[in-house]
Amino acid sequence: MLRNLDLRLLAAVLALMALSVVTIASATRTSGGAFFSQAVRQQMLWILVGLLAMAVMIFIDPGDLSRLSVFIYVVNLLALLAVGFLGSSVLGAQRWIPIGPFRLQPSELAKVFLAITLSASLARREGGFGGWRSFVMSFLHIAVPLGLILKQPDLGTSLVLLAVLFGILFFAGAPLGKLFGLYGAGIAAAVLAVVLHLRFGLPLPLKDYQLMRLIVFANPDLDPLQAGYHLRQSLIAVGSGRLFGKGLFAGVQSGLDFLPMRHTDFIYSVVAEELGLIGAGFLLILYLILVWRAVLIAGMARDRFCSLLAAGLAAMFAFHILVNVGMTIGIMPITGIPLPFMSYGGSAMLANCMAVGLLQSIAARRKKILF
Amino acid sequence: MEPRELEKRVKISLALVALVFLALFSRLFELQVVHGQRYDDLSSNNRLRILPISAPRGEIRDRDGQVLAETRPAFAVSLMHMGVTDLDRTIDSLSGILGMTPEEIRKRIEAQRDRLYEPILLKSDIPPEMHTMIEERRLDLPGVVVEVRPIRYYPQGKLAAHVLGYLGEIDQASLLALEAKGYHAGDIVGKSGIEATFDEYLRGSDGGRQVEVDSRGRPKRVMGRIEPQPGSTVLLTLDAGLQRVAEDALRKSMESLRTNKYDPYPNARAGAVVALDPSTGEILALASEPAYDPNLFASRISAADWQALQGDPLQPMLDRAVSGLYQPGSAFKMVTAIAGLETGHTTGREVFPPCTGLYHVTARDVKRCWALKYGGHGALNLVNAIGQSCNSVFYELGRRVGIDDMARYARELGFGQLTGLEDIGGEKAGLVPTTDWKRRAFPRDPQWWLSESLDAAIGQGFHQYTPIQVANYVATLANGGARYRPFLVRQVLDAGGRAVYTGTPSVTGRAAISPATLDIVRSGMIAVTSPGGTAAAAFSGFPFKVAGKTGTVEFPGKDNHSWFVCYAPADDPRIAIAILIEEGGSGSLAAAPVARAMLGEFFDLLPAPAGD
């Protein structure tokens, strides 16, 4: 069975992990500091834990997960509720719960858990996709967790959930016209709401700074000291990398502290500045492999549940990449979602490794091609 | 889902994925290749700053090298805004030490809102005690920087203030005109006087340190350094010793006029002195009272001081020597005499009808000569008429010559025009009345009346001249008819001692007056300071003859203005002086002593015996 592991996927992920360590080392360097800063050591630890989790997921049969889906759903919900009560507030958001010496961010794991439970729920349904009923049921399935995440507030991760939903619905057989229409209408409504807010003062459940971060990519001068500044610094970092980059550890935007959050959300800017178009492009290719393989795995899965699960995880990765990279290059709103495997952060690394583990598990057990 | 549908969806997904990544890659390409250079420049600009090193301003010295304006080191307090966490606390602490209100400090910060990475200057010249206080409380004042800056200093205080001028921040209009020459917003430039006209020489060129800074504007590394070029030194034609005597004598005379027990002139508070070299046009002294202290402006004049200067009714900022317009009074009589001689209306030998103190213009219109109380001057020739300043003789001459011819000779002698002085600004051209002018200026009374000619003949009426015009006129008489352009700057030497500018004498015109006429008029001026003349007492005991003329101008509603003009020595003139005291009364009593003091200084004479 292990023979059928997707080696290309594995190689891409390992390459990403290695690049992550190096880039974080650069992004968090201090003059005279060692290569292995605190952040680098942490990240390496999480990579280790993640690889372990990945291995565990490979050996679990996806069918078992399907059977445990209710349990998983409840645990997920409890974890999200716990954040509200036990969580600590960093950067004004309630996202972590402390577990022993570690901090766990349940919303990261929620993405994977909900992919599992939603896939199970839809796969069980007899007779394929059930029209509007299935749409509504699926949305309700994620509604409560989505609400809890939105309240943290974590708009970015909420949107990821909607992306996961999209991926699963897509492979569940939802009529394409209705699916695109629904999501299209949702996006249009959001844009309309923002425009109405700006022009006519329509009240939005968003704070000013949150709104600014969302729209500043269209016009950085709307908020030149905060979000606009952020974006501008990122563009300067990326653009000044040019073809070959300024060299590892030589990025001035980051080294001189011009680019905030460079080891987390804006880590792609660091790569672009230091390794240029060559390096940033190579990184995009690695991600392309990741998503491409995930989609193919969804197509080759042995059963409906595996197919939907793989599709949901593929959508998850694709959305993260699109929005995070897009944000650093100024074509997407600033939403604070991390770059898979690259951004500094343990919960995300764990969740992504579990996702890859699940993908490998599905791949390893794929339909045998009959000649 | 059936396999075909699944396969189709897989293909669509892959296509969408490819599209997304293509979009990301193209944008990357756009940023890094298409606009790469631009972002690279922005990245450099982000982190490289030029911190200017001020160039010391050039000195201004008198003709003998005495320093009138220089630079001295001053301590300036600035605030580095970025990176200061508890700004409010720092502002509050600072306001107590500096004596600025927190609002004033915040306004400075606000004004520099778009350049917060540069230090914000709060006070540019703090006394040593303040410096000590700041140093002691360093830890409580994060972001506060004290640096040494050169500051303008006028060691002689108010001496020659109007010549030197004052400094201030460059204004919008000038900035637009001068930006091409390297001036920036916030530069301190000369606003008046030599400081303004020769600003480009005096300012030198600032240097700078190119520094790599972090996002808080904190310097990390010095990348390079350009040394500042000190400003050039301006050498004036002024004689500081003479200038001081002129200003002191003027002030002393005015004070004694105000406090005189028998005949006080309480409004004698303003005046002007101009002294020229009649053979070159060099200005040896130029004073205007009251004056101001240019040191007030050296480091951002306080609002209170500025208000005081602007609100003072005596206008200390006004340079009366070049901008003040006055009637010349009897000092004008030489012009009338010249007009009479040149137009053939009189000769040097004529003895005029005796002056009784009254002159009948018509049966009803009678004008007075000031000698009325003495019964009139009696019969005088022209020379004595000048020497004793008899109005009757000049009324008669005025009647004979007429205003237009008088005006012609007045213009020959430089009246009613700019003298050509370029080294400082503010000069006014003044006015010589003519029949044409009156017709245009007074549409309701266009007729020129005979009595107006008579008034004009004794220097009253519509005349409007500046003290420097009057001085130049005397200098022209002294040198035989050549009108020189008055100038203040002999040379400008750069930091290496090379002359980059030299002032040269230049003749702007020759008065079309015959030498014989000038002789007669000059004799008249010598008669003024000889026994019997109106200024005989002032110059008794002088080792040489002084050619002069007193003037007393009647001004309705005010006390008379006093004039005295002279040149000396009469046979070989080396200096020509004009002195004006507003509301000083008699020219001989108020203004002549000032000339005496100046000549004493200039020719190194022993002081006059007490009791004069």
Structure description:
The complex is a heterodimer of chains A (371) and B (612). Chain A is built from 14 helices and three strands. Chain A is mainly α and 371 residues long. A three-stranded antiparallel β-sheet of chain A has the order 1-2-3, covered by helices on one side. The mean pLDDT of chain A is 85. Chain B is of the alpha+beta class and 612 residues long. Chain B folds into two domains: 49-215 and 223-236, Penicillin-binding protein 2a (Domain 2) (Alpha-Beta Complex), CATH 3.90.1310.10; 240-290 and 317-602, Beta-lactamase, CATH 3.40.710. Chain B contains 22 helices and 21 strands. In chain B, strands 2, 3, 4, 5, 10, 16 and 17 form a seven-stranded mixed β-sheet that branches. In chain B, helix 14 (333-342) packs across helix 17 (403-412), helix 14 runs antiparallel to helix 21 and helix 16 (391-401) packs across helix 19. The radius of gyration of chain B is 34 Å and the shape is elongated. Chain A binds chain B through residues 128-129, 170-173, 176, 233, 235-243, 252-253, 256-258, 272, 276-277, 280-281, 284, 287-288, 291-292, 295-296, 298-299, 304, 307, 311, 314, 318, 321-322, 325-326, 329-331, and chain B through 1, 5-7, 9-10, 12-14, 17-18, 20-21, 23-25, 27-29, 31-33, 35-40, 42-43, 46-47, 212-216, 220.
Low-confidence stretches of chain A: none
Number of helical elements of chain A: 14
Task: Specify the biggest β-sheet of chain A.
Answer: 3 strands, antiparallel
The spatial strand order of the largest sheet of chain A comes to 1-2-3
Principal-axes shape call of chain B: elongated
- Taking all Cα atoms into account, the compactness measure Rg of chain B is 34 Å
Number of helices of chain B: 22
How much of the sequence of chain A is in beta strands? under 5%
Please write the string of helix (H) and strand (E) elements of chain A. HHHHEEEHHHHHHHHHH
Biggest interface pair, counts: A-B, 48 and 38 residues
Overall pLDDT score of chain B: 89
Q: Rounded to an integer, what's the Rg of chain A over CA atoms?
A: 21 Å
Helix content of chain A: 55-70%
CATH class value of the largest domain in chain B: Alpha Beta
Oligomer: heterodimer
The level of helicity of chain B is: 25-40%
Q: Give the second-level CATH assignment, the architecture of the largest domain in chain B.
A: 3-Layer(aba) Sandwich
Number of domains of chain B: 2
Q: What is the overall shape of chain A?
A: globular
Largest sheet of chain B: 7 strands, mixed
Number of strands of chain A: 3
